[in-house]
Amino acid sequence: MNSTLKEIALMSGGILSVGSDSSLFIDNVVSDSRIARDGSLLVAIKGDKSDGHDFVANVISKLKAGALINKAYYESSLSSFKELPNLILVDDTIKALGLLAKRYRNTLTIPIVGITGSNGKTTVKEMLNSICESEFGVGNVLATEGNLNNHIGMPLTLLKIKPKHKVAIIEMGMNHSGELIYLSNIVKPNIATINNIMLAHAGNFNDLEDIAKAKGEIFSGLMDDGEAYINQSSPYQNLWQNHPGKNIFFGKPGSICYIKYNDTGSKFTLDGVLGEINCELKVLGEHNKLNAMTAATLAIALHCSAKNIQYGINNYTGYKGRLERKNAFNGALIIDDSYNANPDSVKAAILAIKDLPKPHWFVFADLAELGEFSKDSHAEVADFATKNGIECLLSYGEESKITYSVFKGAKMHFCCIEDIVKYCFEHLPASATLLVKGSNSMNLASFVSKIVK
């Protein structure tokens, strides 16, 4: 974003505080005061643990910057905000941020890709980013960073688009119905896809079809000439075909892109409108071949060459906390898949390590937001692990007690991460492969940090 404070006030539906410099140039919008700098607009958001309004005065006094704040704070009889310039006053900073991003998006002409799905959307985004950097040049592609894919992070991502960018890749997450309608109608993607439907955030839905319908909301914001890329292998494809754009299919022979040959190991061959593309992944997991197919499909939509699609896929080396290879203190292989989890991604991770050094150990923590599906899902993980080569289970959390009780093999259950660390230091074989998987809220990343070499 490159606008004056006055222009941003108009776009966000706000008004400037007394004494503001309406011509102050803003080229950076943030919600964290620690990364604010000259030219930043700090969006003050009240969270569960802190309130961004508490940091506004410090930013305004030290920097040539502005802040978007709730009008109620300014109008309070005890307010110290009335002495501050360069404030944009709005009724609700989160809604104003969304409005600002939506109106900014309307000024953009570059193609914008929207990606959602139960599993693998970040991997698809990163694979597509790898391809696009090869096609359009490093620095000319904007892609969602980290997990900035919700009603706060996604608008902030859109506002990072600069004139130098030739394409934007926007990841959109959701955990309840209606969320993607809001996000998609801000993004207004030219190209959009749903990577897959699995049992994620299931506690907020009745069944997989309900999840599929909610994921289908990504297509509601498509530009009138936009394109919905629909995987023909999905049993829910018929739910996704009514929207403003055009349906384009992939995933099966005769479509724009599909897997023609799936060799053993990491090799596979894509085929479709660009002909055969031979690929070899550097990342683990059969499911990542499907992620690569989706990324290639979106790259085709962006008119990337077969050469750059092949290069981008073959040179993708993975993402932090997603089947990431690390070495333990004693040389054992750690497969760090701690970023997040649902039942299907757990199963995919277990299959991904099948050809790695044995014995196979598994540190498993609770799967969150499963509601009434939780008990059965945690039992299914135990059964799947038993049947697919897991020799030792180290479980952690209340829900994973079910997994512990059902698993057939060597096992221990723990109440804190420190105890798992201690157990591994005392008992983990140097020849082992240790898979680490659980919901992000269980903080298994901290466990990994304590046992790496």
How is this fold's topology laid out?
Blueprint: E1 3-4, H1 5-12, E2 15-16, E3 25-26, E4 28-30, E5 40-43, H2 56-62, E6 66-70, H3 71-75, E7 87-90, H4 93-105, E8 112-116, H5 121-136, E9 141-143, H6 153-158, E10 167-171, H7 179-187, E11 191-194, H8 208-215, E12 227-231, E13 246-250, E14 257-262, E15 267-272, E16 277-280, H9 287-301, H10 306-314, E17 324-327, E18 333-337, H11 343-352, E19 360-365, H12 374-387, E20 392-396, H13 400-406, E21 410-414, H14 417-427, E22 433-437, H15 444-451
Parallel strand pairs: 4-5, 5-6, 6-7, 8-10, 8-11, 9-10, 11-12, 12-13, 18-22, 19-20, 19-22, 20-21
Antiparallel strand pairs: 1-3, 2-7, 14-15, 15-16, 17-18
List keywords for this structure.
Udp-n-acetylmuramoylalanyl-d-glutamate--2,6- Diaminopimelate Ligase, Chain: A, domain 1, globular, 453 residues, six-stranded mixed beta sheet, 3 domains, Protein-Tyrosine Phosphatase, Chain A, alpha/beta, single chain, UDP-N-acetylmuramoyl-L-alanine:D-glutamate ligase, six-stranded parallel beta sheet
